């Protein structure tokens, strides 16, 4: 017997999936890595907020989780969406 299949729904204006966000970003000219990372400029577009706020949040230890292997900070789409859905995007 097959388990019921539930389609994701929009919740309070949030996208239904990481794939949906990826498609929308790529369609508007933003680069998304194969593993779902985006630059701070793209992260600011998703949140939405100014890039300067993301930089301030990083200095203050706030904002969505990021990964900075060298000079460039990267954000995973899943982390950004989780951070928004947890209500922390209202900081």
Which structural traits does this protein have?
mainly alpha
Polypeptide structure, described:
- The chain is mainly α.
- It has one domain (18-90).
- The chain has helices spanning 18-27, 40-46, 51-60, 77-85; strands at residues 37-39, 74-76.
- Strands 1-2 form a two-stranded antiparallel ribbon.
- Helix 2 crosses helix 3.
- The radius of gyration is 14 Å and the shape is globular.
- The termini are far apart.
- Residues 1-11 have low confidence and may be disordered.
Cα-atom Rg, whole angstroms?
A: 14 Å
> Which class do the helix and strand fractions yield?
mainly alpha
Strand content: 5-15%
> Domains counted in the coordinates: how many?
1
Residues in helices, as a percent range: 25-40%
Low-confidence stretches: 1-11
Termini separation (Å)?
A: 45 Å
Mean pLDDT: 83
How many helices in DSSP terms? 4
Number of strands: 2
* Overall morphology: globular
Largest sheet features:
2 strands, antiparallel
Question: Strand order across the biggest sheet?
Answer: 1-2
Order of helices and strands: HEHHEH
Brief overview, please?
Helices cover 40% and strands 7% of the residues. It is built from 4 helices and 2 strands. It has helices at 18-27, 40-46, 51-60, 77-85; strands at 37-39, 74-76.
